[in-house]
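USER: My hope is that you can spare some time for a protein that puzzles me. I am handing you a single protein, as its sequence and its fold in token form. Walk me, if you will, through where the backbone shape changes along the chain. The protein I mean follows directly.
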Amino acid sequence: MSTNPPAKSKLFGRSSWTEWKRVADILRQETVGGMLLLAGAVVALVWANSPWSEAYTAARDFTFGPHSLHLDLSVGQWAADGLLAIFFFVVGVELKREFVVGDLRDPRKAAIPIVAAVGGVVVPAVIYAVINLGDSSALHGWAIPTATDIAFAVAVLAVIGRFLPSALRMFLLTLAVVDDLIAICIIAIFYTAELAVVPLLLALIPLGLFTLLVQRRVRSWWLLLPLAVVTWALVHASGIHATVAGVLLGFAVPALTRRGEAVSMAEHFEHRLRPLSAGVAVPIFALFAAGVAFGGLDGLAEALTEPVALGIIAGLLAGKAIGIFGTTYVMSRFTKAELDSDVAWIDVFGIAILGGIGFTVSLLVGELSFAEGDERGEIVKIGVLCGSLLSALVATVLLRFRNTHYRKVYEKETKDEDRDGIPDIYQGRSSSEDPLG
């Protein structure tokens, strides 16, 4: 009778080859999107602080659209309400797929990134609230430092950590996806000032038709796109932020494949729309959301002393790191899981700090937190930009220390001696030549 103790579960263990390929494809697209996002932000900052700053303001505030449908929006609002709906549609599709056929379908695998995402939301919010405790109006921005920008974070990884173990990359991606779901719930619940019930109920009609068509595997854009636009417009008219419509439409897309299908509907939509989201929607939003006039070094220094900016910076840099790393560590002790041999806790801490890059959704929440014309809206942008930049720099320093180790892991994960297109480690043939022992 065997007396061997049961094997302990592994934390950040290697996934299947299929999942690795899927995540690698997503990360490649998000890397390009992140570079474009950074370019859009830089252009916005240079333009807003140049002699042509008035032209930037005029372009951002130019209003167009039918007034009768409550869609007479500025260019900046169209970018935030319209283009980001595409981004959140992709988030919805990705979440649906993760919970149905991805790693999140297994409660044991899902527990760590979900709890880490929750910790990465709660701790930054608490830090922001403590710093701004004496100002009730400033507390409206409590959710600003709670978001992780996956495109920005992956773009940083592409520069400083492209050899990072695949399990950590997948953890960051899953964490950010769950983080986006929490963010959209926060927006829907806490940043809806007035709710118009009739448009919201009417939105269920095109949403239901869209769901029926995609469940029947209809892919005709000329049928689905009008239904999606009408759903978006009615949700916008209801007072709920229109990006919520994107998530609901994404949830409607089936993630399972039927007999005869090469890919699921979720994969089909994701492959079609992720490039549009990462390469067009998010960079344009950054272009019209990140432009803030610093007023020179003195103005920048003064803005950084404001409690709102300090709360955002501390929330992103310290709050995200403490929340993500702390909950992950506690969960590992609670579940008695052991770290995979390729990963050390310093790596997890580096990823947690990288989670403090909260750009796109943080700027969106900042716009919703304060009324138009409130000077704190500009302070929010400075806080988000500085907090995200500091998180990126600190994570870079930490992760670069372990780059030699990461290269060895990368070589092990990509070795393909039989040249069949599948790394040997995913076929169980590389243990005898494990360069890490």
Observations:
- The two ends are 30 Å apart (CA to CA).
